[in-house]
Amino acid sequence: MMKPIHILNGPNLNLLGLRQPEIYGHETLADVAARCAALASELGVSVAFKQSNHEGEIVEMIHLARLEAAAIVINPAAYTHTSVAILDALNTFEGPVFEVHISNVHKREGFRHHSYVSLRADGVIAGCGTEGYLLALRRAVSVLRG
Ligand code: DQA
């Protein structure tokens, strides 16, 4: 059996469903985690779904993924646009990395147009709502299965 796929979420995503629903929708992060788990079992893989509001904790999650994960799906949230530390951590990970944004960051403020994480990501999905996590998960599995 393949190692799990780690799905990592950055700051404020714990408030998904409550936070600016006109941008991010009404689903909660627990709903997204449940949909990812259901798709994972359909695809015959396992997932670990995590969230942190702290940059260093996300770095530690990536270090753990180095040891335990076959692929990373990450929505780094605001750290997308600021964090060299998260980029450096992702550069130590050997498997495929997929970056997800619920909103279309390119349609929003200029400061959201640049992503440090995109310098490492093998694929980027933005503006597909929370379905982006499922698309990224499917892509991770198809890349891992060759
Ligand atoms: C986000 C987009 C980021 O610009 C923002 O800071 C977030 C969420 C998204 O999923 O659309 O917190 O990553």
What does this protein structure show overall?
- The protein is an alpha/beta fold.
- The chain has a single domain (5-145), classed as Rossmann fold (3-Layer(aba) Sandwich).
- The protein contains 5 helices and 5 strands, in the order βααβαβαββα.
- The chain has a 5-stranded parallel beta sheet, with helices on both faces.
- β3, α4 and β4 (97-101) form a beta-alpha-beta unit.
- The longest helix is centred in the first third of the chain and has 15 residues, at 29-43.
- The model has no long low-confidence stretch (mean pLDDT 97).
- It binds 1,3,4-trihydroxy-5-OXO-cyclohexanecarboxylic acid.
- 1,3,4-trihydroxy-5-OXO-cyclohexanecarboxylic acid is lined by residues 12, 75, 77-78, 80, 101-103, 105, 112.
- 1,3,4-trihydroxy-5-OXO-cyclohexanecarboxylic acid binds next to loops.
- Topology pattern, helix = H, strand = E: EHHEHEHEEH
Based on CA inertia axes, which overall geometry fits?
A: globular
* CATH superfamily annotation: Dehydroquinase, class II
CATH topology: Rossmann fold
> On the 0-100 scale, what is the average pLDDT?
97
Question: What is the number of domains?
Answer: 1
Quaternary state of the chains: single chain
Distance between the termini: 15 Å
Radius of gyration: 14 Å
Topology of helices and strands:
Elements: E1 5-9, H1 21-24, H2 29-43, E2 47-51, H3 55-68, E3 71-75, H4 84-90, E4 97-101, E5 123-126, H5 131-144
Parallel strand pairs: 1-2, 1-3, 3-4, 4-5
Bound molecules: 1,3,4-trihydroxy-5-OXO-cyclohexanecarboxylic acid.
1,3,4-trihydroxy-5-OXO-cyclohexanecarboxylic acid binds at residues 12, 75, 77-78, 80, 101-103, 105, 112.
